[in-house]
């Protein structure tokens, strides 16, 4: 199993975060706080009209104060529970939402790149992750 001490885990998480932040439009909340990929994921999963256990878990953690911290915790939760590919795929279903959150260079807006990314993430479902949540 992959644990918190794994160099590959840190590289994987850094690459995932890079992908989710690449060409992300700068958005602000009503109170002026910068919105990040965490907000994109929450909005995408909320559209499915089904509360995602990972979102519920992350929002219950009082120690997490920033969208980036929440996003990182969500990625780790999804890796442990083998839900990363499915969760991201749900967020990528709506082309209008993707255009609202990402500029044209984002790999998520290219159908071939999006399929390759999701295919790779589904392969991670075979890997066991033992991470501190």
Automatic annotation (TrEMBL):
Molecular function as annotated in GO: zinc ion binding
PROSITE patterns: RUN (PS50826)
Domain RUN: 3-133
Keyword Zinc recorded: yes
InterPro entries for the chain: Run_dom (IPR004012), Run_dom_sf (IPR037213)
Cellular localization per UniProt: Cytoplasmic vesicle, Autophagosome; Lysosome
GO biological process, one term: autophagy
Keywords per UniProt: Autophagy, Coiled coil, Cytoplasmic vesicle, Lysosome, Metal-binding, Zinc, Zinc-finger
Function description: ARL8 effector that promotes the coupling of endolysosomes to dynein-dynactin for retrograde transport along microtubules. Acts by binding both GTP-bound ARL8 and dynein-dynactin. In nonneuronal cells, promotes concentration of endolysosomes in the juxtanuclear area. In hippocampal neurons, drives retrograde transport of endolysosomes from the axon to the soma. Positive regulator of macroautophagy in dendritic cells. Increases autophagic flux, probably by stimulating both autophagosome formation and facilitating tethering with lysosomes.
Protein name: RUN and FYVE domain-containing protein 4
Gene source species: Pachyramphus minor
